[in-house]
Amino acid sequence: MNPESEVNDSSRQIALVGAPVDDGAGQKGCLMGPDAYRTAGLAEQLQALGHSVTDHGNLQQAAVGNIASTNPVLKNLRSYAGWTRALHAKAADLGTQPVIPIYLGGDHAMAAGTVSGQAKAAAALNRPLFVLWLDAHSDFHTLDSTDSGNLHGTPLAFACGLPGFEELLGAPLAHPVDPKNVEILGVRSIDAAEREMLLSHGVGVSDMRRIDEDGVATLLRPFLDRVRAANGLLHVSLDVDFLDPEIAPAVGTTVPGGTTFREAHLVMELLHDSGLVTSLDLVELNPFLDERGKTARLMVDLTGSLFGRRVFDRPTQSF
User: Fold this and answer.
1) Active-site entry in 183, 239, 290, 301
2) Residue of 183, 263, 281, 284 marked catalytic
3) What is the pLDDT of residue 313?
4) For 144-194, what is the HEC assignment?
5) Which CATH number does the domain 13-306 belong to among 3.30.505.50, 1.10.3720.10, 3.90.180.10, 3.40.800.10?
């Protein structure tokens, strides 16, 4: 988002970008996610809040030649590279325009392109990019460390510049996100290899126990203070499995014990109050697994809270 644009304006320019990425997850169905958000009324909700919405339609992956890998378990690496390149280019373009992009997924592999593209745009604006990763998983595997081969577990490691991804963009990643500018909130499933890399790179991690003990507001506010102090741009990546599967069943990687309805809305409300969010991923919605559109509608409602939907207006707490 252009620094001359004011995120807290009553009317914002929002760009919807469909990313029907379906090759990074182990269970098919996420390619239907972008159209499920549209059917659930995402654009209409945002317009009702006074925003201007432009739908850029669904992207297509870029053409990619053969890619070699030393890890034989990797699945769909060529497709992953194609989506990463297409989304990287789109995000790098939108990130320097006076709009807030919302990327409609698609599995979380799409974030390799959206986050790296937003980081490139942030560098062009001479501002750091911060990332809030709302997810049951850290997605911090490299192409060498993953045992499952499911590439939706690798995008954050790629965006942070970890080694082993050299062929993904067809060129070195010029503008990696500083791992210390990343906060993972709501995590409850981390593999041993990821844990070591998260610790060694200084990524912020707040698991569900910390949320239970301290509350989401106490954990989120210091991170937002850091973004503001650095004059940073903030990309939010919201995975359906951040939510408890009892309220959001439409995801192929359910992990019990996720955030509640109110905790999730509070996160979105605090993000809105901060005025810092400049781009958003909505990922891992699998409509094939949904119950009468329940999860899609909840994700649309959460997006509404991020963009100013309130039950009752009151003075907001200063950060």
Assistant:
1) 239
2) 284
3) 52
4) CCCCCCCHHHCHHHHHCCCCCCCCCCCCCCCCCCCHHHEEEEEECECCHHH
5) 3.40.800.10
Do residues 69 and 81 touch, judged by C-beta distance below 8 A?
no
Q: Over the stretch 156-168, which tens digit does the pLDDT of each residue have? A: 999 999 999 988 9
Does the active-site annotation cover 239?
Answer: yes
Q: Which of 22, 23, 107, 135 is catalytic?
A: 135
Catalytic residue check, 201: no
Write down the pLDDT at residue 7: 39
Our answer to whether residue 108 is catalytic in this structure is yes
Phi, psi of 29 (to 5 degrees): 135, -20
pLDDT at 148 over 50: yes
Residue pLDDT, tens place only, 293-314: 999 999 999 999 999 998 655 5
Q: Which residue has the tokens 């690798």?
A: 154
Q: Active-site residue 93, yes or no?
A: no
Please confirm, yes or no, whether 301 is among the known catalytic residues.
no
Q: Is the pLDDT of residue 4 over 60?
A: no
3-class state of residue 243 by DSSP: strand
235 is catalytic: no
Write down the domain spans for the chain: 13-306
